[in-house]
Write a structure and sequence with these properties.
The chain is an alpha/beta fold. It is built from four helices and eight strands; from the N terminus they run H-E-H-E-E-E-H-E-E-E-E-H. The protein is globular, with a radius of gyration of 19 Å. Residues 9-20 and 135-160 have low confidence and may be disordered.
Length: 176
């Protein structure tokens, strides 16, 4: 019976690790989506969230009326749309953060970036995974090189996490 308890304990530890490595989904602009004049500024939205490696950022917008450009640092501050790293234009664009550092996003629509439709997201290092996704983070764009892009508002995708947690709890009761 001791070996069953030991394996049950190892299984619970393994499932806890799986829960901690799952990413969150963040919806830029919340219910309003990627729009020119959101009710909450993009800088305020970013400031109240913490982005980590494996998180996904989602931009929702009218497919033929706007787009999201992933750009270099200088192009972000100058609203330069001529040489984006990536041009996301399907109306429901997703980007998973596969590394830490800054990511620069601007609107592809004429004059929208200049009017404030842009967002700078700083993804924290994986060794800070124990910190909350809700803690504010102070971006320091000057300290990091431009970001190549990897392939409801800040809502946690909890369905799979809850399922794993409940299963872990049941296994702990059975084996311990």
């Amino acid at each position: 019976m001791d070996s069953l308890s030991f394996f049950g304990f190892l299984f619970v530890i393994f499932l806890s690790f799986l829960c901690s490595s799952q990413g969150y989904k963040f919806y830029v602009g919340g219910k309003e989506g990627w729009v020119l004049n959101p009710s909450e500024s993009y800088s305020h939205w970013v400031g109240r969230n913490r982005f980590q490696v494996n998180d996904t950022i989602v931009f929702k917008y009218k497919k033929d009326s706007d787009s999201v450009l992933v750009v270099h640092r200088d192009d972000y501050f100058k609203c330069n749309k001529t040489k984006p790293i990536h041009n996301l234009k399907d109306g429901h664009s997703k980007l998973k953060f596969t590394r830490s550092g800054p990511f620069y996003f601007i609107s592809g629509q004429d004059d929208h970036c200049e009017k404030g439709q842009k967002v700078l997201v700083v993804v924290i290092s994986p060794n800070y995974h124990h910190m909350s996704h809700k803690s504010p983070v102070a971006p320091s764009p000057e300290s990091v090189s431009p970001a190549p892009a990897p392939a409801k508002s800040s809502a946690r995708d909890v369905s799979s996490s809850v399922l794993v947690w409940v299963f872990s709890l049941i296994m702990a009761v059975v084996f311990l």
